[in-house]
Structures are given as structure tokens and as C-alpha cells.
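LOG
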Amino acid sequence: MPDDLYGLPVTCARPETLAAINDFIHGFLSYQPKATAVMEAADADPDCALANAYTALLWMFLEAPAAPANAAPYIARARAAADGVTAREALMIDAAAAWVEGDVPKLLEICDRITTDHPRDMTALKLAQYHLFNLGDAPAMLRMALKALPEADDIAYAHGMIAFGYEQCHLLPRAEAAARRAMELRHDEPWAHHALAHVMLTQGRVSEGAAFLEGVAETWSGLNSFMHSHNWWHLALFYLSLGRHEDVRRAFDTHVWGLAKEYSQDQVGAASLLARMEFAGVDVGDRWTDVADHIAQRGADTVNPFLTLQYLYALGRTERPEAIPLMRAIEKRASDTDQHDHLAWRDVALPAARGILAHAKGDWSAAISQMAHALPRMAECGGSHAQRDLFEQIHLDALVRDGRASSAQQVLEMRRTYDPDGVPLNLLLGDVYAKTGLPALAEEARARAARTLADNAT
């Protein structure tokens, strides 16, 4: 019986299928397009159960309502070919089937068993972290990743996943150490770059973060659209803080939007960056139109609450009629008590959606109250700290527009703990202090913004 690239036995008779399985494993971890090679291999080798299970996973990562139907035939093939497979492979088939059937808790239980018995199974670890991330369970993300050590200490991607687990748990020095260990093993490890970007953003190391990401950006050119666009999205956040408007627009046009316009993650990355650009005073021109046109084609997509809320923001911001049926779908999803994530939809996503539409309509009071209800539990909808900050900014924008300068001051000074010299933040803080009768503090804030702009003048 042959082994995969990390030394785990694989039930596979054809060398070309094994090569495709290895391409999937490494491509999945490194965000390279070669991961999709397993789909053709599965069609050519229906008797390889693992190749078909992995193909089912790829379909599910489409994050679209049609994904389960596309994945189901590969689950059927995998089950039909499961006689004689290893116990690990049988569990992976069950995990993929659980996802197709909508049973995420079962999937996570299976991945926990696989990673306990086979700590070098990076696919099971990555799959588990993806779902735990969507549930907002950062400690479980870290616990799962740490099980890879010491057996997988030689695998850069294990350290990258550990780094992100630490970062999401706010253990930033440990996150940075793990990310740098990953980069010692592979300088081009994009998830380690991503974890370090989070650390530097959270610690207010804005200029350093921009320089770091610019220094490794060339390694993202051959990656899939999500990782390429998402790491550039992080770089764009640094540009926003530094007041580098032209660089932000260039990053959006060249690297964030346009790689895979139909893909969920590319769509929400573009929508959330455009929103942040507008909140920061950047002229976005007509860029919303194309993004909203593509999001509108998703219909009433409630596969994932974090994604759905950003679809709704884009549709509401552009006054698209598709926002109405999407809101109805959110209300229906929130009333479905049979789903494992029912509480996240009912208690968090639903009020957030109402707040988003209220913001789009200029009903600032309703936007403030609805977003304030959702914000303390937004992690339950998924997304990272940096991504969920979009909803904080929607709430802040409503406070400012509703004339609640005292409340806005409290929010802005808290935000300044991790973005002390940010240009848009300090310009807004200057306005808020002027409105609250504190002109000296207003001038201090504006001076901080001016210094940052001068330091980054080109």
C-alpha cells in the first residue's frame, strides 16, 4: 500500500491517482490550484474511495447552495469503493458525507478522531479548522492544531494553522512565533503570512505590516483566487490606515477583485473592502456595480451567515431589489430550529441583517440598535477579528451619522489602541472631538493623521 506525501497509507492502485491525491493535499494546504487535479482523477478512478471523498470536499468548499448536490455522487462512489480502505480513509469518507448532509458537529467529531490517531493528517486538521472558524470556536481551532505536534513539526503548514489558532485566541506573541517557524520551513507559506498580517494589524504595527506583506506578495501570484485576493485584502487594510488611497484602489482593481468573480470568498472580500474604503473616505467610483451584479446572481444564498451578511450589505448599499428576497431568506433561516447553527442565525445574523438594511436606508437609529444587539456575539457567525470589524465599522458609521459624537468618541479611542496613528481613524476622531467641544484633542488627532500621511508620502 503506498503512502501519501506525509507518510499516511492510501488505498490506491493507480500511481496517477496517488499523484493527484498528493496534489490535493499539498494544494489544499498551500492554496494552490493543483488541488483540483483530484477531481479529474476521481472521475478516471471511481474505485479510489479517498480521491472521491476529497473531490466531494472540493465541491463543498464552493460555499454555494448547489454544492451538496454536486458533491453527493462522489460520496456515493467513495462509499461504494470503501471495502478494504484504511480506518483513517473510512473516517474521511464519513466526514465528507457528514458535511454534504449538513451535519457539521459530526464532521468535527470525526476530524477530532482522525487528528488524534494520525497527527500528520493535515487535510483533516485543515478541514476541522475551517469549520471551527465558521462557528467562531477559536480555542477549538487551537486545540486541534496543537495536536499536530510533535509528529508534524517538520510540516510548515501545521505551524501556519497553529499560528492562526493562537492569533484567533488573542495569543499574539505565540502566534507570531508559530508563523515565523512556518516561514523557516517554507518562506512562501501563505497562511503563515496571513497569520502574521493579523498579528501586526492587531498590534498596530501598520507600516511594518505593509512592508512585510509587500515583501512576500510575489509568492502569492500562483495561488488560488481566495488566498491571493485575501492576503492582498490584508495589505489593503494597512494601506487604508496609512492613507495610501491610490495603493488601495490599485490593490482592489489588480488583486482583490477580478480573479474569480463568481466565488463566495472573492465576492465578500471585494464587498467588505469597498465598504471600508468608503468609511475611510476613499473615492471608489463605480466599483460597487460589478461586485453587486455578481452577488445578485447568488439569489437567496444562506449557506453561511458571515458570507450572507456581506452579500446583503452589497445589495443594500447598491439598492438592489435582490436584497429583499435575501432578507426574507435570512428570516426563514433564523426560524429553522433543526440546523446546528440555529442560534447564530436567530440571535446574531438576523439582527445584524436588519441593522445592515437600516444602515443602507439611512435609518441610523435602527442600525445602531440592531447592530449593537448583534455585535457582542458576531464571532458565532464566523469570520476573523479583522473580517468581523466590518460590522463594527457599520455601527460606528451609524453613530457618527446620527450625531452621537460622545458614543463615537468611546468607540474610536478604543479602536486607537490597535491603530494609534491611522489616518481615517484620527481624522474622524478629530471631527468627533470638535463636535464634543474638545478642540485641543481634535487638533492632536488631526496632527497624528497628518504625520502618518507625511511619513508615507511618495
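LOG (cont.) second protein
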Amino acid sequence: MKIMKVWFDDEHLVGEDENGNVYKQSLLWYQKLKDATEEERNVYCFGFDGIHWRDLDIDVSFESFLYEDAEPSDFQRFFLIHKELNITEFAKIAGINATLLRNYINGFKKPSKEREKEILEKIREIGNEYVKADFNV
């Protein structure tokens, strides 16, 4: 498969292949593209196996448009949006190796359904603690 045309919507990098099939990938996977101006996004070139944005130093493979996880899971989305969170400290609280958690978040490894459920439950638990906090100052 080879992408022949690319464009963006509010949340996705969109590609069309030589057969007119349209594919989407979340821009959360490509923070520099997400933050780029329209002008910066429009300066790219096609290579043998992907798309390159030289000024942004980003490469997106054609193959990546076919990945199962073109959209982040709920817990990946949470961490990709909330960059202010300390992954190492969250991992300690959740009882997960920090490197493994980063690999889960970035899609390099896929957690089991049980592990993903544990992570989401810990996120909810911490969120509930914030909601219950009394900030009378």
C-alpha cells in the first residue's frame, strides 16, 4: 500500500492510497504534527516507504496507516493528552514498571486486557481523589 495524498482534520493525519482508500491516524501519535501550523504540515515529500516532513523531522510510514492502533486506547489517549503527568510516579503507584508503562502508552507494547483494566482503574481512583479533595483555602 502506498499513500498518494495526505491531509489533516482536527484530530487526524488522513491518507489516501492509490486505490482511493482513506486511512486515518490520530495526531496524538505525532505531537509535532499536531502542534504544527498548516504551512508546516503542507511541506512534506513522499519517499519509497513513507512520508517525510523535513522541517519537523517527522517520518510516517505508509505501513503505519494499516496498524490496528491508529487510534490510541482510552488509557493511551489519557497519557498522551496529559503530558503534565509523571509517568514514573504513576507507574510506582500502579505497581507497573515505568519503562513498560511508557511502552504501553507509546504503542510499542500492548497490555493485556486485564493490565489495561488495572491502569484505567488506577486513573479513575486518582481522579476520584482529586474530585473529593477539599480545596478550601
